Amino acid sequence: MTITLDDVTPAVSRVIEVPLGIRLDRLHSVFQAALAWTDSHLWELTFGRTGFGIPDPEYGFGGPLDARKTTLGQALEGMRGKTFRYLYDFGDAWEHSVKIQGIAPAEPQGSYPRLLAATGMRPPEDSGGPWGYAEMLEALADPTHEYHEEALEALGDDHDPDAQPDVDLIHNRLAVLAKK
After folding, report:
1. pTM of the model
2. Strand, helix or coil at 179?
3. Distance between CA atoms of 115 and 175, rounded to whole angstroms?
4. Ordered domains of the chain (ranges, CATH)
5. 68, 54 in Cβ contact below 8 A?
6. Quick count: other Cβ atoms within 10 Å of Cβ 3?
């Protein structure tokens, strides 16, 4: 599957393999590890019109279905296409498109989840979502911009939006999840 962070330039995506039997809450953990998010915010996976997350017992009704009780294979059943959505951080609204590239039998000695490819570094947490991050980059690039100092403080003077991810680190994070 390919997970792509929407509305962000340069592009941020990961190609990963997971078993169809993975629970959706664990799939969320895989996405967090693959993209190096910090798992500090609410999230939801949406298949068609059905949302899955961790229900809030105080909310009562109308929230997402329990991601701990559904597998990826179950969530994909009956879907026409093999694309679904992953929303991380309801405030910043980091939307991701997830496309199933194919379904193949698991390798008997294979370890899952595993990373096949990685492109781009995700923006910093709490940077205002795609549009806030784009504004920060604009301010960072222009020393005369009225918000240059704020962008410099938030992103740092060594921030490089074109940097590539540390693939070894992602492999290590996914290996930890594979052992659980």
Report:
1. 0.92
2. helix
3. 10
4. 2-120+162-179 (3.10.290.30), 124-160 (no CATH)
5. yes
6. 20
